[in-house]
Amino acid sequence: MKLSRFPRLNFAHLPTPLEPMPRLTETLGGPQLWIKRDDCTGLAGGGNKTRKLEFLMGQALADGADTIITQGATQSNHARQTAAVAARCGLRCELLLEDRVGTEDPDYNYNGNVLLDHIFGANLHYFAAGTDMNEAMAQVAEQLTRDGRKCYVVPGGGSNPTGALGYVNAALELAQQANDLGLNIDCLVHATGSAGTQAGLVAGMVGARTDIPVLGVGVRAPDAVQHANVLKLANATTAYMGLGEIVHTQDVQVNCAYVGEGYGLSTAASLEAIDLLAKTEGILLDPVYSAKGMAGLIDLVRKGHWKKEQQVVFLHTGGSQALFAYRQEFGVPDYRA
Ligand SMILES: *Cc1c(COP(=O)(O)O)cnc(C)c1O
To answer: Less crowded by CB within 10 Å, the N or C end of the chain?
Structure first.
């Protein structure tokens, strides 16, 4: 697979480390657990959107854009990473934030990723839950185009075939690391939302015949919808690479049993996952994505889904900057009283 023919900027810190998690492995008593640190991609606190943005921003600059427009939830990690890359490239950045969670908590509305978006100099726009965000982006683009700007619209989560190339590359990177370590990976587990991460990984794994299964743990949509979204984008990605539609339905595994009441809303299991990773491995998860992905992994380990000698890798997709938006859920004691 030849990725070098696509425009790309190189700002991610790659390869990200692949590390064992001995204390978590021992605590859970199941398979050997590893972590692929895509929370350490370097830019703006890191996260999975940085790999996608290398290709998306490469394309934006190739197209001569001077303005980047994208959208996400209020505490979008994608918006934060986009704001940082735009700043780095000297481009104007318009972030359209959807109030998906619906809370008046000032930490949620102004701290965490929102604070960082502001520091990176992005222009923030508020939208009520349920707004057609693609239509909203089209309207902002139209207005700015009339004002003489050259706009590049990045879809939510950076999830289209261009963005997914970042995770085709990540699949090849992980396969290389596993080969170098003599590690036979039985499963790669991660949180899946707008589907670009899993679509790129599956496209890369299938395209390169690595034989590493990928399990996406859903954070929003039900199983059938998430499966269809990943499969469709994975095939669009292999087609974009000139390989044809080579991804089959059984190549895509999703489990959306850990969403709880909805997107961005914590569950007892996601809070336990944050607590456990922090206290066994000193690693921070985020409440919206990686904690739900890890909650799925923990539950499957406890249910005996894998044998003790099997090797399971968790892809840490980042997002711990959002912890500051969820302060009230962690019950910091009033230690000054
Ligand atoms: C966006 C995001 C995901 C989900 O990735 P998709 O490509 O949207 O499926 C997972 N974890 C974190 C921290 C994210 O910000």
So the answer is: C
